[in-house]
Amino acid sequence: MTEELAARLHSLGYRLTPQRQFVLEAVEKLGHATPDEILAEVQQRSSAVNVSTVYRTLEVLEELGLVRHTHLSDRAPTYHSVGDHEHFHLVCRNCHRIVSVDPHEVAPLAERLRDEHGFVLDIGHLAVFGHCVECEEREEDDA
Ligand SMILES: [Zn+2]
Ligand SMILES: [Zn+2]
To answer: pLDDT digit string (tens) for 44-58?
Structure first.
């Protein structure tokens, strides 16, 4: 993984610094994480890293196609690794659970948007808000 990453960075004119490696590994470990959460994770390994380093590193990693971001709240963007598989997000407004869903679930929509609206959907950035059925049931119990 590290060698592959180093080769990829190198081919694009970047070096694999420990910071870049730590940030990428933190994103992979955390699944979906804000820059602050990534910082906390990275600082366990290197106290020399601050939040602006994390932001800059995330920008580089996103340019390189190694991480993506989406907006799961009104606050900071949330980053995820693209090492696993492409996905979009279902976000419960009540319990803040994030469910990653395979892109083929929205393939018919993506096709229609392309054919009928001349628009290409950015699936990895997509977050759909609502609430999970468990939360809905809990609310009905409370009522
Ligand atoms: Zn994601
Ligand atoms: Zn919920």
So the answer is: 998 888 999 999 999
Pairwise CA distance, residues 107 & 103, whole Å: 6
What CATH number matches the domain at 85-143, 3.30.1490.190, 1.10.1200.10, 3.20.20.10, 2.40.260.10?
A: 3.30.1490.190
The CA distance from 68 to 48, in Å, is: 24
Rounded to the nearest angstrom, the distance between the alpha carbon of 105 and the centre of ligand 2 is 20
Least distant ligand from the CA of 97: 2
Query: Of all residues in the chain, what percent carry a pLDDT higher than 90?
Result: 60
Note the CATH architecture for domain 1-84: Orthogonal Bundle (1.10)
Q: Please name the amino acid found at residue 108.
A: P
- Ligand 1 (single-atom ion) residues, CB below 5 Å: 80
Ligand nearest to the CA of 80: 1
